[in-house]
Write a structure and sequence with these properties.
The protein has about 475 residues and is mostly helical. Helix content is about 75%, strand content about 5%.
Length: about 475
Amino acid sequence: MSVISTLGAPMVPTIAQEQHVSLSAAQWVLTATLLAGAISGPVLGRLGDGPRRRGAIQGALAGVLAGSVLAAVAPVFGLLLAGRALQGLGMGLMPLAIAVARDHLPADRMRTGIASLSITTSVGAGLGYPITGIIAQHLDYRAGFWFAACLSALALTVVTWIIPVGSSAPHRPLDVTGAVLLCSGLAFLLLALSQGVAWGLTSAATLACLGMGIAVLVMWVVQALRARHPLVDIRLVRNRAVLAANTTALLMGIGMYGVLSLINLYTQVPARAGYGFHLSLTATGLVLMPMSLGSVTANRLASALVLRIGLYRVLPLGALVVCIDLLLLTLWRDHVSILVLGTFMLGTGVGAAYAVMPLLIVRHVPMSETGSATSFNQVLRTIGGSVGSAAISAIMLAHTPAGSEQPTDAAYTVALLVTAAASFLGVVAAVALPPRRVTVVEPTKVEAASDGDVVAQSAEAPSGIVRPGS
């Protein structure tokens, strides 16, 4: 799904030309997927916390398959957008995969299994960009969606064959009111963030969407605190370890998607601009590919570091690597090899942080809340990426001279500094928010924590009872 989610970015100019729409309209192939992913995540997460888990995974993958075929054969742009929206359903599958791992992997493999799953976002992005670049440059853009259809069909087959039917958690009714409020609030908010530059940052449409999004999300929080079976248990979010993972996810999402967008743009800048490298789509994809290698390396390194220094120290370390990477690219980016190093460092930092985020969450929430809690973390990553994308678009627009199609080189410097500042705030959150030493008691499973504490958790405890001490 991480590979499929990257299909839109490099193909936007090709889709605009083939479908005879403007570039700003073609940008909706990214926005539609982003909106659908953010909306589907919490609902799939809740459906996956119970006996309907495999059905939820199969349903989402079937939607992705249908969306891929629809986008491949769509005769008009509206149907193409509908196909991309259906593809976005798959962005909510990561929390369900983590819930399966927590339920079915033995204790000695659960930590590494969850960490490996959590880095697939960055690994898939690193692999997806060169694949899409080759497709966009040498084939019709529809071939990219047929490729996505093959991948999703393969995934659907494997899930049906391998994944157990559901979890042992009792069936609980879906919080329909909470789902409507959360999905509506996220839709308004992400619409304002993703389209704010095109509409105008102070336009009535942007401000109305932003205001509606905030108001509806406040209503959702109030409703979630009162509901007996909320879509997302807000009380769990107040746990300091969970809060650290969620806050860092939001801030690192800005840095991760910021670097990917900026390098993607910078490498393709025409030679007449006086900077950049005027690379082809395929070459740009190869520049971004080391992100996958960095993520895989970080996953193995993070497992060793967790045993030596603990989860709470690995999280800020990953955010710090991303911050240093952004500062490096701010000062030096005059050679392709530096950009390659930058994408590798990005994968290393993001891979280390993303590997430990779900581990922090699953240790401090009941097993029945795994899918819901991790899906909320995934939503915050998406919102962070939207904020980063909107900020970069605004900076590029502000630094584009009148009558020119390209922003100045200073635009990239400012954008990199802004995303570096967000990543640094992620370091601060990862250091300041987590508890110092905790023991969480669960009679059903006891496992050794990375820092020597004993971690267990009560399935009945609605907020994850945390007791100090070791």
